[in-house]
Amino acid sequence: LAETESTQAVFAVMPLPEPLSLEQLTSSAILLLDGLQDPGNLGTIIRTADALGYHSLILGKGSVDPYNSKALRAMQG
After folding, report:
1. Which of 22, 31, 42, 75 lies at a C-alpha separation of 20 to 30 Å from 51?
2. What is the chain's pLDDT, residue by residue, as a tens digit (77 residues)?
3. Structural domains of the chain, count
């Protein structure tokens, strides 16, 4: 289940949430990212945005998958 040699030995299987349309976004704290390619940077940006109170994130076409394993590891903390 893990893509790394040493894990935290905690796994979960969960359905992915459906993305919201622009009309469904109600927060005024929205972060827009376009063309972000490095999954580690994306995870760090998401973690930081959460700490700063952002509630929504919009990724432009060509951006890295937010469910990429490296992005998910970088979001932890």
Report:
1. 22
2. 677 788 777 888 889 888 888 788 777 788 999 999 999 999 999 999 999 988 888 999 999 999 998 998 899 87
3. 1
Question: Could you tell me if residue 56 is inside a domain?
Answer: yes
Strand partners, 31: 57
Where do runs of H (alpha helix) occur along 1-77?
39-51, 69-75
Q: Residue 71: is it exposed, middle or buried by C-beta count within 10 angstroms (0-12/13-18/19+)?
A: buried
Note whether residue 17 is domain-resident. Answer: no
Query: pTM, whole model, 2 decimals?
Result: 0.77
